[in-house]
Amino acid sequence: MRLLLLINSKWQKLSSEIVEVMEGANGMSSQGLADVDLKMLRVFATVVDCGGYAAAQIRLNLSAPSISGYMSALERRLGMRLCRRGRGGFELTEKGAEVYRESQRLFAAIDDFTAVTGALRGRLLGNLKVGMIDCVISDPATVIHHAIRRFHGRRNEVHLELVVDRPQELQRAVLDGRLDLAFGFFPDPVDGLESRPLHDETLEFYCGHLHPLFPQEKVSPDDLQAHRVVARGYWRREDIARVGAVRHAATVYHMEAQALLILSGRYLGYLPCHYAAAWVDAGEMRSLLPEQLRYHSTFALITRRNPRPSLVLSTFLTDVEAAMNELAQPGKDRMRAAE
User: Fold this and answer.
1) Would you place residue 89 in the very low, low, confident or very high pLDDT band (cuts 50, 70, 90)?
2) pTM of the predicted structure, to 2 decimals
3) Using an 8 Å Cβ cutoff, are 92 and 45 in contact?
4) Which residues belong to any copy of the HTH lysR-type domain (predicted)?
5) Residue 13's pLDDT band (boundaries 50, 70, 90)?
6) Which domain holds residue 304?
7) What distance in Å separates the CA atoms of residue 4 and residue 174, rounded to the nearest whole number?
8) 302/154 same-domain check
9) DSSP 304-335
10) Into how many domains does the chain fold?
11) Going by C-beta distance under 8 Å and a sequence separation of 6 or more, which residues neighbour residue 282?
12) CB 56 within 8 A of CB 67
């Protein structure tokens, strides 16, 4: 009975959002929403997410003329101009921005409704979009793959999308609904997001074995000043501030690029200890001034603030918590399947 009430509630929500999205359209709301309308809306939303037609071609596997055709057809169907294209690039109109926001609510409602009806048949249905920062696979404390293993130990036909991006982009994507949740380091809180701390990660300042400082037995903070430093673009000020007034000579947005420049022997930079461990053990990297330059970051899970998350999301969050509890118990088989 409870599930039937929930389904009825989801259906009412879905119906009202369809009406809101189509409000003001020339005939769409009165004729109803057809499959082709959803297709056009999804193409439109993908173009917006990608920032224009060029990047959307790869995501959609469609040619530019095909995308243009979908966009023109949607504008005719709605009876309004949604975007402008020109020398200044792709830009949404005010109405286009509103349609995009409402389309995201519509897609979320459809996914949620699909998940609830699937639960009636004893399985989870829908989509789960998960974001994360890079280089977590070498972290022994990460719960992501353990949670995924548990989640797919259940009867489900959920399509999983896993996205790797920088922290600020992950926050934006969760906030606007492009992602359901994200794992990473998020030092700057964002209104509308909830953060759940998972564990701490240690980072140290490294040089490669080809760097002049590598064989130097004693290194002082002053010794660092003459050498190039690579910093992450999203935490550049913080990284440079920890080391002092050094030569900030390169910017990267992924840890793999950071490690590559350090291994070149021309740059110094921060890396997570678990990620650098293989190169340290092989004698190809060395931590400099660990007692002074080491710091810790809190690895967290973020979701959009929502009193009623989707069934798929709430189930996955339950599996994340169960995986954390299992990892915290020494002697347990960490990779056992969820029952």
Assistant:
1) confident
2) 0.72
3) no
4) 36-93
5) low
6) 114-200+298-327
7) 29
8) yes
9) E--SS--HHHHHHHHHHHHHHHHHTSTTS-TT
10) 3
11) none
12) yes
Instruction: Please report which residue ranges of 244-304 form alpha helices under DSSP H.
Output: 255-263, 273-281, 290-293
Q: What are the percentages of helix, strand and coil residues in the chain, rounded to 5?
A: 50, 20, 30
Coil, strand, or helix at residue 71? helix
Helix (H) or strand (E) holding 55: helix 53-60
- Reported as a pLDDT band with limits 50, 70 and 90, residue 9 is low
Q: Are residues 68 and 154 located together in one domain of the fold?
A: no
Q: Say which residue, 248 or 132, is predicted with more confidence.
A: 132
The dihedrals phi and psi of 306, each to the nearest 5 degrees, come to -150, 120
Contact 309, 317 (CB under 8 A): yes
Reduce the DSSP state of residue 185 to 3 states and report it. coil
Indicate whether 203 pLDDT > 50: yes
Token pair of 152, please? 């797919």
pLDDT per residue over 166-187, tens digit each? Answer: 999 999 999 988 899 999 999 8
> Is there a single domain that holds both residue 7 and residue 53?
yes
Q: What is the largest CA-CA distance in the chain?
A: 78
We report the CATH number of the domain holding residue 134 as: 3.40.190.10
Kindly report the average pLDDT of the chain as a whole number.
84
| Residue 332, in any domain of the structure | no
Q: Tell me if 338 is assigned to some domain.
A: no
> Domain check: are 249 and 139 in the same one?
no
Q: Considering only CA atoms, which of 213, 231, 214 is closest in space to residue 222?
A: 213
Tell me the range of 78-87, 153-162, 269-278 where mean pLDDT is highest. 269-278
Alpha-carbon distance values, 305 to 13, 82, 156, 175 (Å): 18, 28, 25, 9
Backbone angles phi, psi at 119, to 5 degrees: -60, -30
Q: Give dist(CA 55, CA 90) in Å, integer.
A: 11
Percent of the chain whose pLDDT exceeds 90: 50
Task: Take residue 181 and report the two structure tokens written for it.
Answer: 């949740």
